[in-house]
Amino acid sequence: MGRYLTTLRVFWVASLTAELEYQANFLIELVATAGNLMGSIFVLSLFYGRGQSLGGWSWEGALVVLGVYTLLEGITSTLLQPNLSTIVAHVRTGSLDFVLLKPIDSQFWLSARTFSPWGLPGIALGAGLIGYAAWKAGATPTPLTLLGAVLMLVASLMILYSLWFVLAASSIWFVKIWNATEVLRSVLVAGRFPVSAFPAGLRAFFTFIVPVAFLTTVPAEAILGRASGPWLLAGGAVAIASVVASRWFWNFALRFYTSASS
Amino acid sequence: MRGGLRQRLDHARRIAAVLLSSQYAYMLEYRAEIVLWALSGVLPFIMLGLWSAVDAGGGLGMDSLQLARYFLSAFVVRQFTIVWVMYTFEEDNLNGRLSPYLLQPLPPVWRYVAAHLSEQATRLPFVALLVGLFFLLYPAAFWWPSLPSVLLAVLATLAAFALRFLMQFTLTMVCFWSEKASALERLLYLPYLYLSGLVAPLALYPEGVRAFAFWTPFPYMVDVPARILAGETVPVLQSFAAMAAWAALLLPINLLLWRRGLRHYSAMGA
Questions:
Q1: What's this model's pTM, rounded to 2 decimal places?
Q2: Do residues A213 and A202 lie in contact, with contact meaning Cβ atoms separated by under 8 Å?
């Protein structure tokens, strides 16, 4: 375990140094993230401005959901996207061989090799919005709700990671699968809104097929201190199951890896 | 003189045919990827879900059928106005592929235009399939647009594509001076996303925001063609005039930057 932490620090310091060569990008990323957040709040105001609510959620509650989404987007561009987008190149050029030969777990290496600071504005803005909106909604941070909120956020990260990893790992068979993560990203946009705001068919789709509900709505409920036991349990179960599934899928996919030019 | 013109037209037609057919063959090779790109344009359907659930309370000023038709049309219009020239150009520029293109007696921009048009042709059957699926799931929303409105919508979509291409290609010229210019496209995408009508018909925007939006080029890129296709009444002449005005504004800037950029261009690694 200690070895993994040391490796992680070396990895991230190295990639941070490399990325900081492009400091103007940080400004662009900050403006883009803030602008995107303002646009999303504007879209929410289109619904709430006419006195309607989204699936029975209050304005502040909907802002918490949006905050969780922004936080996840930030983590996606900090860790998931920069790391997992390289799997396809490793498969195409055959450099996955070298990854597999390293004396470290290959899934860990592929998932944590780089760290891109460009998602940090999203993480900061998302966390800020969650805090502000939860305070406005009158959520009381008892130790128990805090624990539930943290647990559900971790669960949602585990689910998000597994979805990304499984799609990216499919490139062992289909080298051109990379766009599939764009499809995933575009479907996850639904997570900007509470899942109960959708009609029944879509709600089922976003709960059972692409578990958007567990990504943003359930953590937001936990943050607002009104999560019910069954949903918390379900969130935890889906999270553990999806990480185990991603692990199994990676081992399964590797059996079909025959290196480039073979 | 007239013969000379005819010869030149003939020549241009031949070049266009060769470019389009070779690019089409190339794009067909990537049809699996293009299907995935097409699928990643589901945003209008997600928004339709939200708006139709809200509409159950009534009072939007648009009934649920109008909403469904608008968002389906917005999806179709978006599919045929997607522009990615900035990313290709940036790559060509960084890899030095632009140099051989510049040596040929054909402005490189036509190569990119042909690539976009061929990509749209590759998309066409898949988009038709998705539209069919939509009507299968939601048969009540089915409608036959009248022939004039179809023709007008095609024309408006082409104009929207041309305007968006021109806009992105103008920004693309930054590639001549910077290595990571495509980051700027993220900034241009923001007003496009929120003012074009992809997230909601502009009719549902507050009065002030809508008035402001129509002073920008963005509503003409989705909202206007989509409403024509959905069979709503649109000030057609005024809209086409606005698109022409924006194009007339952007074109000289684009040409100027292209000339300046070429003078600055030294081919990577030179």
A1: 0.90
A2: no
